[in-house]
Amino acid sequence: MIKDLAVRWGYLIVKHFPDKGLWLKIKRKFQLAKLYRDDIALYRVEIARQMGAKVGENCRFYSLNFFSEPYLIEIGNDVIISGEVIFITHDGGVYLFKDQIPNLRGYYGKIKIGNNCFIGMGAIILPNVEIGNNCIVGAGAVVTQSFPDNSVIMGNPAKVAFKTDMYFKLRKYSKQTVLSEKYPFPTRISDNEKRLILEEKLKNITTMKARLR
C-alpha cells in the first residue's frame, strides 16, 4: 500500500519533468511502475517494445516469452497474447552439425502476427511464421507454418480448423458467452463480482458429454 502510494505520488511529480536526458529516464521508470500496478497486461506490452519487438496499438500481453531475439518479432494492432505463449525465433537443433559446419552460428527466423488476433494459452509460435489478420490461435497450438487472414488455427502441428466468421457465429449464439454492459472487456472487475456473474450465467449449463467413437 505504501509502495503504491509512493509510485502514484512520484508519477504525479515526474510527469512534469522534461522529456530529455536523465529526467526522461526517471519519468519513464515511474510511468512503467504505475502501469505495472494499474494494468500488468499493458505493462508487458511496453516491456516488449523496450526489448526490441515491434508492437502495434491496443495490444494486451498476458505473457512475455520472447526469449533471445525479440527484435525479430512483429505484432500488429489489437492483439491479445494469453498466458504461457512462447515465441521461438531460432532453432537450436542445427548445433548438432557444428562439426560439419565449423562456422555455424545458428538458424533464425522472424515471426509476424497480423492485426486483431488472439493467441491462446500455451501456444508455441516457431520461426518463419506469419499469421494473418483476424486470426485465432487455439490453446496449446504448435504453429510451424504461416496462415492466411481469418483463420482459426488449432492442433500440433497447427492447422486451420475453420474460418473466423464460423467461430463468431458459434460464440455469438452460445449460452456460455457472457455479456456485460457494466464490465465489457477489458474493463477491470473484482474476482468476487466475476464469480457472481459466472455462477449465475452457468448455473444451468453442464459440461459437454463424451461421445462414443
Question: Any idea what the CATH superfamily of the largest domain is called?
Answer: Hexapeptide repeat proteins
**SSE succession:** HHHEEEEEEEEEEEEEHH
Question: What percent of the residues sit in helical stretches (DSSP H or I)?
Answer: 25-40%
CATH architecture grouping of the largest domain: 3 Solenoid
How would you characterize the largest beta sheet?
A: 6 strands, mixed
Shape: flat
> Please, how many helices?
5
Beta-strand percentage? 15-25%
CATH class of the largest domain: Mainly Beta
Strand order of the largest sheet: 2-4-7-10-12-13
Mean pLDDT: 88
Number of structural domains = 2
Quaternary structure type: single chain
Counting helices, strands and paired strands, the structural category is alpha/beta
Let me know the number of strands: 13
Roughly how many Å is the radius of gyration? 21 Å
- Unreliably modeled segments: none
Q: Note the gap between the termini.
A: 56 Å
Q: What is the name of the CATH topology of the largest domain?
A: UDP N-Acetylglucosamine Acyltransferase, domain 1
